[in-house]
Amino acid sequence: MQDSLGVVVLAAGQGTRMKSSRHKVLHPIAGLSMIDHVLRAAKPLAAAHTVVVIGHGAEQVRKHVGEAVTYAVQDPPQGTGDAVRSAQASLDGRVDTVLVLLGDSPLIRPHTLARLLEVHRREQSLVTLLTGHTHDPGRIVRDSDLRVCGIVEEKMATPDQLKLAERNSGVCAFRAEWLWRRLATLQRSSIGEYLLTDLTAQAVSDGESSTSWPVSAVLLDDPSEAMGINTRLQLAQAEQVARRRLLDEMMLSGVTVVDPTTTYVHTGVEVGADTTLLPGTHLTGSARIGAGCTIGPSASVHESWVGDGCTVQWSVVEHSRIEDGADVGPYSHLRPGSRIGRGVHIGNYVETKNTVIGEGSASGHVSYLGDAVIGADVNIGAGTITANYDGVRKNRTTIGDGAFIGVDTILRAPVEVGEHGRTGAGSVVTRDVPPDRLVVGVPARLVPQHATKRPEQEREQ
Question: What pTM value is reported for the model?
Fold first, then answer.
C-alpha cells in the first residue's frame, strides 16, 4: 500500500530583488502565477495534505491561492529548515512522506515529481534529493562510491567544492517521522539560518548502520525545471521556457506555429489540429481555438472560444465566442459578450460589444455594434453605429433576419428593425422599422407606398 503524502510549498521569502509590491510567487509566467504552476505540478500526486508556508506578504498569497490548501506562517524567516518546521503541526502523524517544493521554482513538471517519489519509496530513503546541472548555489557532495553524503552552500564551500557541477534543486522528499525528529535538533548554520540542506549529512550519519544508503538522488533530465526566480531577468527567462514548452506540445499535436519566438500562449490554452498560428499571435487566459483555423498575424484572443475553420487576423477578441467558419479582421475588436455566428464576416475596423450576430451576416467596414441582437443574413453597411448609451443606461438594438442596413446608418437604441427591413444611406433611425419596409432620412421615416423588395422578389421582375 502506498504511503500517504504531504506537500510543503515554501513561499515565505521576501523577494526583495524583484523590486515589487507584488509577492514574488504571485508574478505570472505563461498566464499563471509561479505558485499556481507549482501547485499544478503537485496536483497529480494526490497528496493527503498540502501546506503553503507564508510569511512576508502572507495575505496576498492567501487571497490568491484560496482555501484549497493549509497555511503555516514563518515569522520571522529563519531559513528553509525553519520554514518546513513551521508546517509540522499540520502534517505530523498524518503523512508518511513529506515532499518539499519551492514556490518560486515554477518550471517543475509533474512527471519529475512522480519519479522523485518513486525512487524515494523504492529505496526507502530518509532523504531523496532532486539534483541537476543548474545554477543553484548548493553543491552536491559525493563520496568515492558516488553516494550523496552532503550538500554544501556556496558561501561555505571550499575552492574544490565550488567546482562541483551537480547542484541541489531545493526539491526533496523526506521520511516524515525522521524529518520531524531531526528538525527538532537542527542547529543554526554558520550563516545564521536553519538550513534544510544540513539534514542530508545528518541522514548519512543516522543511516550508517543501515543496509541501504539513506540518501538518494534523482538527476533532472531538464535542468530548467530547477530554475528559481529571484529577479525580473529570471522571470523573463522562465517565461520563454514555459512558452516554448507549450508551443512544442501544440506543434506535436498537429498545430502549425510559423514563428514560435513571436507567438505567445498561456497555460491552459487549447488549439485544434491543422490550425496555423502566424507571427504576433497572443492566445491568453483560457482561449480555445478549433481545428483548421488561421489565427494571426498579430491577433490577440483572450478568454474566448473560436470554432473550426475560422480566421482572425490583426484583431483583438476578448471574452467572446466565434462560431465555425467565421472570419474577423483585419483591425477589428470583439469586446466582451460578443457572439459571432456561423459563417459571419467581420471586416476591417469593426467593433462589437455584448452583441449577437446571426449566421451568414456581414459587417464589412468601420462600424460599432454595441448591445445588439442581429439576425441571420443581415448586411451591415459601412459606418453603421448602434447608439446604445443614452447617458444613463445601455439600450438594445434588434435587427431581424435578412435586414439591410445602409451605409452611415445610426440606430438610436432602444430600436428594432424588422425582418427584411431596410435603411437608406445616412439614416438616423429613432423609431422601430416594420418588417419589409424602407426608412430614409434624419430622423428616418417610412417611404410612402413602398414595401422593401427582397432580393428574390427583385430578380423575379
Answer: 0.90
